[in-house]
TrEMBL record, chain B:
It comes from Bosea vestrisii. This is Amino acid ABC transporter permease. Pfam families: BPD_transp_1. Belongs to the binding-protein-dependent transport system permease family. HisMQ subfamily. It is a multi-pass membrane protein. Keywords: Cell membrane, Membrane, Transmembrane, Transmembrane helix, Transport.
Length: 391, 347
């Protein structure tokens, strides 16, 4: 033993050796996991054989043989199970995207109303938020579905909300353009392009002159083509207007009560949460910011739009992202009121084929992909709104 | 934003926009409040032998709740035996309140929880002590909802603490397993986890071993909540200063002692608001078990409304159940706020 050795260090052996211990722990955990999976898989194979359930994804190409209440692509019972899943996925995507847009709009109203100084408005918004957040979404969906299917009048007595728009037990009926919607879609496209182009130009001008850009010319450009085409259509083309008869409506377009209830329920439920998120975001921006904006000569609207809201969004975007994720996942409650979303069609297919493992694997993968897509988009958006140079 | 400093008049009529808003709101109140009052109170029927009385009165039919209360609260549990779910429910609530009062050490809490679970199962299921056997498919209503929520959160806590610690582990394999589990569960809807549990657990177990439908739903809810709870606890773990862990190590504590005695208790305290939100979410989400056929409070209400005589009074039925949910959820949020105030360091 040399004189420099201060402490007699025993080299650790076996379980006392940290690196051996960590390796051994990981190996044991992985072995237990692999053993469990192997055990479950053996049981699965045995059980599937005992119940004579087929395996594999061959069923996706077989004829489904059931009706689907609402479809955005052509559907007949002779189409395949795979196409049925596609119909369900589209139905889910439609509800999720419309739900996100509607709940954000309603959430803005709720958030602003709960910040209002008006003593008639803010308590009402607080009451709404408390009631909605403390009751299950499923309960609210049942409630809306019951209201829409039981309390509304039949076709012959349906109230006319707007000219040609009826709300009845059988759903929301509205007029549709008879000769294609292509010109209208083209007008929307032109409007969006003009809006984006003007936005880019205005931003460059604003950076050059130091005068903040105005929003309204862009909005005008966005709306003009659509209004023009709609006016032209209204004069020349004919609408297919729904006509109430004794046995329901004939003609026109229709949104089923299931979809209406789902959209109303999802939007109003998530609006309460989104309203709270936006309220917290706006409250997190100090009042001095608004005053500093005013001191620089910005109008109240400009100060809100250019100073307060960008900072509020930095706080609000991460929780907003998880709220959108929740909304997308909550579209699966559609099954409870009979809207044919992905989950509900998957359930029908399991009942018809018995191939639960395959169908549930597909469903889970699709929902995971949907969640990842929303996460990725919101991360990208978050990186955009994050303050430059701030962590 | 600093509303208190302004006079009521300024808040109502301070600007053109605000005056307009006030006028519109007053007009809406004037139009809707009397009608609402008339429907809910004045024209309402409180007691009635048949739904026809309600229809002639025209207002809300609260008699529906009087008529179907037992079905809504206890589902299809045998009528004469319904004192048992009531006793089990009260026992559960009493035990949860006792646990929430923080007057007992963790040993008595664990012992009380185990004894309570056993007592609830004996009371509900019967088959011993002269109680008749009631299989779980007849359990229902409010007790089922409360059992699923309480059982789910009790089961989820240990799993979630394990997952949260595992996600910060230095061992790559364990970290990987925890990350994959948490992210996969958080990426899919609860309905799909419930379906998976109800369709696939029987397929994955040996043929002779049967798992009860109620237990399958409880497993699904527990695992689902554990993933979310793990993230809430991980948020708390990240907020515990690193010095705490270093100090514990300097005192010679090992990994488990450091984690469970020093770090996790502080992390849980920091995570109280997030955990309370999850508990409220879990309580509401138990309603989804209705989709896989368990008669919880909500599905029991829906079944009560299935009676063709009473089915036009859905609004009354759902509003009543909504009040029950609001009562339970408000209790959780009030309790969490009190707990937060109490557990502030130095308070």
């Amino acid at each position: 033993m040399s004189a420099v050795a201060v402490l007699p260090v025993r080299s650790a052996r076996g379980w006392s050796d940290p690196s051996f211990r960590s390796l051994a722990t990981q190996v044991i955990v992985l072995a237990v996991l692999a053993g469990t999976v192997a055990f479950l898989a053996t049981n699965l194979v045995g059980n599937l054989e005992a119940r004579s359930i087929r395996t594999g994804f061959g069923f996706l190409w077989q004829a489904a043989g059931f009706e689907i209440g609402q479809s955005f692509i052509a559907w007949s019972p002779s189409a395949s199970f795979g196409r049925a899943l596609l119909v369900g996925l589209l139905n889910t995507l439609v509800v999720a995207s419309l739900g996100i847009v509607l709940s954000t709009l309603a959430g803005f109203v709720v958030g602003i109303a709960s910040l209002s100084r008006n003593p008639l408005v803010s308590p009402l918004a607080r009451l709404y938020v408390e009631l909605v957040r403390n009751t299950p979404l499923l309960l609210q969906l049942y409630l809306w579905y019951a209201v829409l299917t039981q309390m509304l009048p039949a076709a012959s007595a349906a109230p006319q909300l707007l000219p040609g728009v009826y709300l009845a037990k059988s759903g929301l009926h509205f007029p549709v353009l008879q000769h294609g919607t292509e010109p209208l879609l083209a007008a929307v496209l032109v409007g969006v392009l003009a809006f984006a182009g003007h936005g880019l130009w205005a931003r460059r001008q604003a950076e050059r002159n130091g005068v903040p850009a105005k929003l309204w010319p862009g909005l005008l450009l966005l709306a003009l083509p659509v209004v023009a085409v709609a006016l032209e259509r209204a004069v020349t083309a004919s609408f297919d207007v729904p006509r109430p008869t004794r046995f329901g409506f004939s003609g026109g377009g229709m949104i089923t009560p299931e979809l209406t209830a789902l959209l109303i329920g999802l939007s109003l439920y998530n609006a309460a949460f989104i309203g709270e998120i936006l309220r917290a975001g706006i409250l997190s921006v100090g009042r001095g910011q608004l005053e500093a904006g005013a001191a620089l000569g910005l109008s109240r609207g400009q100060a809100l739009r250019l100073v307060v809201i960008p900072q509020a969004m930095k706080v609000a975007v991460p929780p907003l992202a998880s709220q959108y994720l929740n909304l997308a996942k909550n579209t699966s409650l559609a099954i409870a009121i009979g809207y044919p979303d992905l989950m509900s069609i998957g359930n029908t297919i399991i009942n018809q084929t018995g191939q639960a493992v395959e169908v549930i694997a597909i469903l889970m993968c699709v929902y995971l992909a949907l969640s990842l897509a929303i996460s990725a988009f919101m991360n990208w958006y978050n990186a955009r709104v994050a303050l430059k140079g701030a962590s | 934003m600093n509303a208190g400093a302004l006079s009521l008049r300024a808040r109502l009529f301070g600007s053109v926009g605000n005056t307009l808003l006030t006028v519109v709101m007053l007009a809406l109140f004037a139009a809707w409040l009397p009608a609402l009052l008339r429907w809910a109170v004045i024209d309402a029927t409180w007691w009635a032998a048949s739904p026809a009385t309600c229809r002639t009165a025209g207002g809300a039919c609260w008699a529906f709740i009087h008529e179907k209360l037992r079905l809504v609260l206890f589902g299809r549990y045998p009528f004469e035996e319904q004192w048992r779910p009531l006793a089990a429910l009260l026992l559960t609530i009493a035990l949860v309140l006792a646990g929430c009062s923080l007057r007992f050490g963790w040993r008595s809490v664990v012992a009380g929880a185990l004894a309570g679970i056993l007592a609830v199962i004996v009371l509900m299921r019967g088959g011993v002590f002269g109680l008749s056997l009631v299989p779980t498919d007849l359990w229902g209503g409010l007790p089922l909802t409360v059992f699923l929520a309480v059982g789910g959160i009790i089961g989820a806590f240990p799993i979630a603490i394990g997952l949260a610690l595992g996600r910060r582990s230095e061992l790559g394999a364990i970290r990987g397993i925890c990350v994959v589990f948490i992210e996969m569960v958080r990426g899919v809807p609860l309905v799909s986890v419930l379906f998976m549990a109800s369709f696939m657990i029987p397929l994955f177990l040996p043929g002779k071993l049967q798992v009860d439908a109620l237990l399958r739903a409880l497993i699904a809810i527990t695992l689902f909540s554990a993933a979310y709870l793990a993230e809430a606890i991980r948020g708390g773990l990240q907020a515990v200063p690193a010095g705490q862990e270093q100090a514990a190590k300097a005192l010679g504590l090992g990994y488990w002692q450091t984690s469970l005695l020093i770090v996790v208790p502080q992390a849980l305290r920091l995570a109280i608001p997030a955990i309370a939100n999850l508990c409220i979410g879990l309580f509401k989400d138990t309603s989804l078990v209705g989709i896989v056929g368990l008669t919880d409070l909500l599905l029991a209400t829906k079944q009560a409304l299935g009676d063709p005589q009473w089915r036009s009074f859905s609004l009354e039925g759902y509003l009543f159940v909504a009040l029950l949910y609001v009562a339970f959820c408000s209790f959780i949020s009030h309790y969490s706020r009190a707990l937060e105030r109490r557990s502030q360091p130095g308070a």
